[in-house]
Write the C-alpha coordinates for this entry.
Amino acid sequence: MHLLFVILALAAPLLLTHWIGGDAAWSALSSFPFSIFLAMLALAVLCWNLNAWRLRLLLNGRAGPMNQRSALGIELASKCALCATPGGSGGPAVLLALLARRDLSPSKGAGVFLIDQGFDSLFFISLLSGLVVYTLSVDTGWPYQALIRWSLAGLLAAIVLVSLCLWTLPRWRIGSPGRRSLFGRAWQRKLLRRYLRARHTFLRTLKLPKRVLGTVLVLTMMHWFARYSLLYLAVAGVGGNIDWLWTFFTQMLGMAASQFSFLPGGAGTAEIGVSALLMPFLTTAQVGAAVLIWRLVSYHLYILAGAPVLLWFGFRSLRQRSLALESDIGRPG
Protein backbone atom coordinates (compact mmCIF):
# COMPACT_ATOMS: atom_id res chain seq x y z
CA MET A 1 0.00 0.00 0.00
CA HIS A 2 2.80 2.42 0.88
CA LEU A 3 4.54 1.65 -2.43
CA LEU A 4 1.31 2.57 -4.22
CA PHE A 5 1.24 5.92 -2.38
CA VAL A 6 4.85 6.61 -3.41
CA ILE A 7 4.07 5.82 -7.05
CA LEU A 8 1.04 8.13 -6.94
CA ALA A 9 3.15 10.87 -5.36
CA LEU A 10 5.81 10.56 -8.06
CA ALA A 11 3.20 10.60 -10.83
CA ALA A 12 1.12 13.47 -9.39
CA PRO A 13 3.24 16.32 -10.86
CA LEU A 14 3.07 14.74 -14.34
CA LEU A 15 -0.70 14.32 -14.18
CA LEU A 16 -1.27 17.81 -12.82
CA THR A 17 1.02 19.35 -15.45
CA HIS A 18 -1.13 17.87 -18.22
CA TRP A 19 -4.32 18.83 -16.38
CA ILE A 20 -3.25 22.45 -15.85
CA GLY A 21 -1.44 23.26 -19.09
CA GLY A 22 -2.31 20.47 -21.51
CA ASP A 23 -0.07 19.92 -24.53
CA ALA A 24 1.12 23.53 -24.39
CA ALA A 25 2.75 22.82 -21.03
CA TRP A 26 4.85 20.05 -22.55
CA SER A 27 5.89 22.41 -25.36
CA ALA A 28 6.98 25.00 -22.78
CA LEU A 29 8.83 22.25 -20.94
CA SER A 30 10.72 21.16 -24.06
CA SER A 31 12.07 24.68 -24.53
CA PHE A 32 13.20 25.07 -20.92
CA PRO A 33 16.82 26.40 -20.92
CA PHE A 34 19.25 23.64 -19.99
CA SER A 35 21.55 26.16 -18.27
CA ILE A 36 18.80 27.13 -15.81
CA PHE A 37 18.03 23.47 -15.17
CA LEU A 38 21.71 22.86 -14.37
CA ALA A 39 21.68 25.86 -12.02
CA MET A 40 18.68 24.35 -10.20
CA LEU A 41 20.50 21.02 -9.86
CA ALA A 42 23.56 22.84 -8.50
CA LEU A 43 21.38 24.61 -5.92
CA ALA A 44 19.90 21.29 -4.82
CA VAL A 45 23.36 19.76 -4.36
CA LEU A 46 24.44 22.88 -2.47
CA CYS A 47 21.46 22.46 -0.13
CA TRP A 48 22.43 18.86 0.61
CA ASN A 49 25.98 19.85 1.48
CA LEU A 50 24.90 22.81 3.62
CA ASN A 51 22.65 20.54 5.68
CA ALA A 52 25.40 17.92 5.97
CA TRP A 53 27.83 20.57 7.22
CA ARG A 54 25.25 21.81 9.70
CA LEU A 55 24.75 18.27 11.02
CA ARG A 56 28.49 17.85 11.56
CA LEU A 57 28.68 21.09 13.53
CA LEU A 58 25.72 20.24 15.76
CA LEU A 59 26.99 16.73 16.50
CA ASN A 60 30.42 18.13 17.43
CA GLY A 61 32.06 14.70 17.31
CA ARG A 62 29.44 12.94 19.48
CA ALA A 63 28.69 10.45 16.69
CA GLY A 64 32.36 9.68 16.10
CA PRO A 65 34.59 11.11 13.39
CA MET A 66 32.39 12.29 10.54
CA ASN A 67 33.64 13.77 7.30
CA GLN A 68 31.50 15.64 4.77
CA ARG A 69 30.94 12.51 2.70
CA SER A 70 29.53 10.55 5.66
CA ALA A 71 27.33 13.44 6.72
CA LEU A 72 26.10 13.84 3.15
CA GLY A 73 25.12 10.17 3.05
CA ILE A 74 23.04 10.59 6.22
CA GLU A 75 21.46 13.74 4.78
CA LEU A 76 20.49 12.06 1.50
CA ALA A 77 19.09 8.96 3.18
CA SER A 78 17.01 10.90 5.71
CA LYS A 79 15.70 13.33 3.07
CA CYS A 80 14.72 10.41 0.86
CA ALA A 81 12.72 8.92 3.73
CA LEU A 82 11.26 12.36 4.42
CA CYS A 83 10.01 12.68 0.84
CA ALA A 84 8.77 9.08 0.61
CA THR A 85 6.55 9.04 3.72
CA PRO A 86 3.31 10.90 4.54
CA GLY A 87 4.00 14.06 6.50
CA GLY A 88 7.73 13.38 6.27
CA SER A 89 7.46 11.05 9.27
CA GLY A 90 10.20 8.73 8.02
CA GLY A 91 12.89 11.43 7.86
CA PRO A 92 13.55 11.84 11.60
CA ALA A 93 13.27 8.09 12.15
CA VAL A 94 15.94 7.32 9.54
CA LEU A 95 18.17 10.11 10.83
CA LEU A 96 18.04 8.79 14.40
CA ALA A 97 18.59 5.21 13.20
CA LEU A 98 21.68 6.18 11.20
CA LEU A 99 23.09 8.17 14.12
CA ALA A 100 22.46 5.15 16.36
CA ARG A 101 24.69 3.09 14.06
CA ARG A 102 27.42 5.57 14.97
CA ASP A 103 26.87 4.92 18.71
CA LEU A 104 24.68 7.98 19.32
CA SER A 105 21.51 6.75 21.00
CA PRO A 106 18.13 7.79 19.52
CA SER A 107 17.33 9.81 22.64
CA LYS A 108 20.54 11.83 22.29
CA GLY A 109 20.01 12.11 18.55
CA ALA A 110 16.54 13.51 19.26
CA GLY A 111 18.13 16.31 21.28
CA VAL A 112 20.32 17.27 18.32
CA PHE A 113 17.35 17.00 15.97
CA LEU A 114 15.35 19.43 18.12
CA ILE A 115 18.14 21.99 17.92
CA ASP A 116 18.31 21.53 14.15
CA GLN A 117 14.57 22.13 13.83
CA GLY A 118 14.84 25.09 16.18
CA PHE A 119 17.26 26.85 13.85
CA ASP A 120 14.87 26.29 10.94
CA SER A 121 12.01 27.71 13.00
CA LEU A 122 14.08 30.73 14.01
CA PHE A 123 14.77 31.50 10.35
CA PHE A 124 11.12 31.25 9.32
CA ILE A 125 9.88 33.26 12.29
CA SER A 126 12.28 36.08 11.44
CA LEU A 127 11.42 36.03 7.74
CA LEU A 128 7.66 35.75 8.23
CA SER A 129 7.69 38.56 10.77
CA GLY A 130 9.38 40.78 8.19
CA LEU A 131 6.92 39.70 5.49
CA VAL A 132 3.91 40.48 7.70
CA VAL A 133 5.26 43.97 8.45
CA TYR A 134 6.12 44.49 4.78
CA THR A 135 2.67 43.52 3.45
CA LEU A 136 0.94 45.67 6.07
CA SER A 137 3.02 48.79 5.43
CA VAL A 138 3.64 48.64 1.67
CA ASP A 139 1.27 48.26 -1.25
CA THR A 140 2.99 45.28 -2.84
CA GLY A 141 0.63 45.02 -5.78
CA TRP A 142 0.31 41.29 -5.13
CA PRO A 143 -3.03 39.60 -5.82
CA TYR A 144 -5.16 38.31 -2.95
CA GLN A 145 -3.77 40.96 -0.58
CA ALA A 146 -6.13 40.16 2.31
CA LEU A 147 -5.62 36.41 1.88
CA ILE A 148 -1.85 36.85 1.78
CA ARG A 149 -1.78 38.89 4.99
CA TRP A 150 -3.97 36.45 6.89
CA SER A 151 -2.05 33.46 5.53
CA LEU A 152 1.28 34.97 6.56
CA ALA A 153 -0.03 35.83 10.02
CA GLY A 154 -1.52 32.34 10.47
CA LEU A 155 1.63 30.63 9.26
CA LEU A 156 3.73 32.78 11.57
CA ALA A 157 1.51 31.94 14.55
CA ALA A 158 1.70 28.22 13.78
CA ILE A 159 5.50 28.25 13.45
CA VAL A 160 5.87 30.25 16.68
CA LEU A 161 3.67 27.74 18.53
CA VAL A 162 5.58 24.74 17.19
CA SER A 163 8.90 26.46 17.92
CA LEU A 164 7.93 27.14 21.53
CA CYS A 165 7.14 23.45 21.93
CA LEU A 166 10.46 22.43 20.33
CA TRP A 167 12.58 24.78 22.41
CA THR A 168 10.83 24.33 25.76
CA LEU A 169 10.07 20.59 25.72
CA PRO A 170 13.61 19.52 26.69
CA ARG A 171 13.53 22.03 29.57
CA TRP A 172 10.38 20.63 31.14
CA ARG A 173 10.80 18.66 34.32
CA ILE A 174 8.62 15.61 34.56
CA GLY A 175 7.65 13.52 37.52
CA SER A 176 9.64 10.72 39.07
CA PRO A 177 9.07 7.11 38.08
CA GLY A 178 7.31 6.47 41.37
CA ARG A 179 4.30 8.62 40.49
CA ARG A 180 1.16 7.18 38.99
CA SER A 181 1.19 7.01 35.21
CA LEU A 182 -0.65 5.44 32.28
CA PHE A 183 2.50 3.36 31.70
CA GLY A 184 3.89 0.63 33.89
CA ARG A 185 6.79 1.50 36.16
CA ALA A 186 9.34 -0.21 33.93
CA TRP A 187 8.15 1.71 30.87
CA GLN A 188 7.96 4.91 32.89
CA ARG A 189 11.57 4.57 34.02
CA LYS A 190 12.65 3.80 30.46
CA LEU A 191 10.84 6.83 29.04
CA LEU A 192 12.23 9.04 31.78
CA ARG A 193 15.80 7.94 31.05
CA ARG A 194 15.36 8.65 27.33
CA TYR A 195 13.78 12.00 28.04
CA LEU A 196 16.65 13.02 30.32
CA ARG A 197 19.24 11.97 27.73
CA ALA A 198 17.49 14.03 25.05
CA ARG A 199 17.19 16.98 27.42
CA HIS A 200 20.86 16.78 28.39
CA THR A 201 21.97 16.59 24.74
CA PHE A 202 19.69 19.51 23.83
CA LEU A 203 21.14 21.75 26.55
CA ARG A 204 24.69 20.59 25.85
CA THR A 205 24.31 21.46 22.17
CA LEU A 206 23.08 24.93 23.09
CA LYS A 207 26.34 25.42 25.01
CA LEU A 208 28.46 24.97 21.91
CA PRO A 209 30.73 27.97 21.17
CA LYS A 210 28.87 30.99 19.80
CA ARG A 211 31.03 30.81 16.70
CA VAL A 212 29.73 27.31 15.96
CA LEU A 213 26.09 28.22 16.63
CA GLY A 214 26.48 31.35 14.50
CA THR A 215 27.87 29.25 11.65
CA VAL A 216 24.91 26.87 11.94
CA LEU A 217 22.53 29.83 11.70
CA VAL A 218 24.30 31.16 8.60
CA LEU A 219 24.19 27.70 6.99
CA THR A 220 20.47 27.49 7.80
CA MET A 221 19.82 30.81 6.08
CA MET A 222 21.90 29.86 3.05
CA HIS A 223 20.07 26.53 2.75
CA TRP A 224 16.57 27.99 2.79
CA PHE A 225 17.41 30.90 0.50
CA ALA A 226 18.91 28.43 -1.99
CA ARG A 227 16.11 25.88 -1.62
CA TYR A 228 13.37 28.47 -2.05
CA SER A 229 15.06 30.00 -5.10
CA LEU A 230 14.28 26.88 -7.13
CA LEU A 231 10.77 28.02 -8.03
CA TYR A 232 12.05 31.46 -9.03
CA LEU A 233 14.48 29.83 -11.49
CA ALA A 234 11.76 27.50 -12.78
CA VAL A 235 9.48 30.48 -13.45
CA ALA A 236 12.31 32.36 -15.18
CA GLY A 237 13.01 29.31 -17.32
CA VAL A 238 9.47 29.26 -18.74
CA GLY A 239 9.63 32.98 -19.56
CA GLY A 240 7.90 34.34 -16.47
CA ASN A 241 8.88 37.45 -14.55
CA ILE A 242 7.84 37.32 -10.89
CA ASP A 243 9.39 38.83 -7.76
CA TRP A 244 11.64 36.43 -5.88
CA LEU A 245 9.78 37.30 -2.68
CA TRP A 246 6.49 36.14 -4.19
CA THR A 247 7.94 32.81 -5.28
CA PHE A 248 9.43 32.38 -1.80
CA PHE A 249 6.07 32.97 -0.18
CA THR A 250 4.36 30.74 -2.75
CA GLN A 251 6.58 27.81 -1.86
CA MET A 252 6.14 28.34 1.87
CA LEU A 253 2.36 28.39 1.62
CA GLY A 254 2.29 25.49 -0.85
CA MET A 255 4.50 23.29 1.32
CA ALA A 256 2.48 24.21 4.43
CA ALA A 257 -0.70 23.13 2.63
CA SER A 258 1.00 19.90 1.56
CA GLN A 259 1.08 18.75 5.18
CA PHE A 260 -2.65 18.04 4.85
CA SER A 261 -2.05 15.55 2.06
CA PHE A 262 -1.90 11.85 2.80
CA LEU A 263 0.49 11.25 -0.08
CA PRO A 264 4.27 11.28 0.51
CA GLY A 265 5.85 14.67 -0.03
CA GLY A 266 2.46 16.36 0.01
CA ALA A 267 2.04 15.39 -3.65
CA GLY A 268 -1.00 16.99 -5.20
CA THR A 269 -1.69 19.69 -2.63
CA ALA A 270 1.78 21.23 -3.04
CA GLU A 271 1.41 21.46 -6.82
CA ILE A 272 -2.16 22.78 -6.68
CA GLY A 273 -1.33 25.36 -4.00
CA VAL A 274 1.71 26.68 -5.86
CA SER A 275 -0.10 26.65 -9.22
CA ALA A 276 -2.98 28.69 -7.81
CA LEU A 277 -0.62 31.41 -6.58
CA LEU A 278 1.25 31.52 -9.90
CA MET A 279 -1.88 31.75 -12.08
CA PRO A 280 -2.25 35.56 -11.88
CA PHE A 281 1.23 36.03 -13.36
CA LEU A 282 1.66 33.21 -15.90
CA THR A 283 -0.25 31.36 -18.57
CA THR A 284 -1.56 27.90 -17.73
CA ALA A 285 1.11 26.34 -19.93
CA GLN A 286 3.86 28.24 -18.12
CA VAL A 287 2.41 27.31 -14.73
CA GLY A 288 2.26 23.61 -15.60
CA ALA A 289 5.84 23.54 -16.90
CA ALA A 290 7.30 25.62 -14.04
CA VAL A 291 5.62 23.55 -11.31
CA LEU A 292 6.75 20.29 -12.91
CA ILE A 293 10.39 21.42 -13.17
CA TRP A 294 10.27 22.73 -9.60
CA ARG A 295 8.95 19.43 -8.24
CA LEU A 296 11.42 17.38 -10.28
CA VAL A 297 14.32 19.18 -8.61
CA SER A 298 12.86 19.79 -5.13
CA TYR A 299 11.15 16.41 -4.69
CA HIS A 300 11.89 13.72 -7.28
CA LEU A 301 15.62 14.44 -7.26
CA TYR A 302 15.76 13.98 -3.49
CA ILE A 303 14.24 10.51 -3.82
CA LEU A 304 16.36 9.60 -6.84
CA ALA A 305 19.62 10.62 -5.14
CA GLY A 306 18.73 9.36 -1.67
CA ALA A 307 17.15 6.00 -2.48
CA PRO A 308 20.45 4.22 -3.39
CA VAL A 309 22.10 5.59 -0.25
CA LEU A 310 19.17 4.52 1.93
CA LEU A 311 19.19 1.04 0.38
CA TRP A 312 22.95 0.80 0.90
CA PHE A 313 22.61 1.67 4.58
CA GLY A 314 19.82 -0.90 4.88
CA PHE A 315 21.92 -3.56 3.16
CA ARG A 316 24.87 -2.87 5.47
CA SER A 317 22.63 -3.07 8.52
CA LEU A 318 21.17 -6.42 7.44
CA ARG A 319 24.64 -7.73 6.66
CA GLN A 320 25.94 -6.74 10.09
CA ARG A 321 22.97 -8.41 11.78
CA SER A 322 23.53 -11.55 9.72
CA LEU A 323 27.20 -11.68 10.67
CA ALA A 324 26.35 -11.11 14.33
CA LEU A 325 23.78 -13.92 14.22
CA GLU A 326 26.25 -16.30 12.57
CA SER A 327 28.81 -15.41 15.22
CA ASP A 328 26.32 -16.16 18.01
CA ILE A 329 25.38 -19.49 16.42
CA GLY A 330 29.01 -20.53 15.97
CA ARG A 331 29.95 -19.56 19.52
CA PRO A 332 30.30 -22.62 21.76
CA GLY A 333 27.68 -22.91 24.50
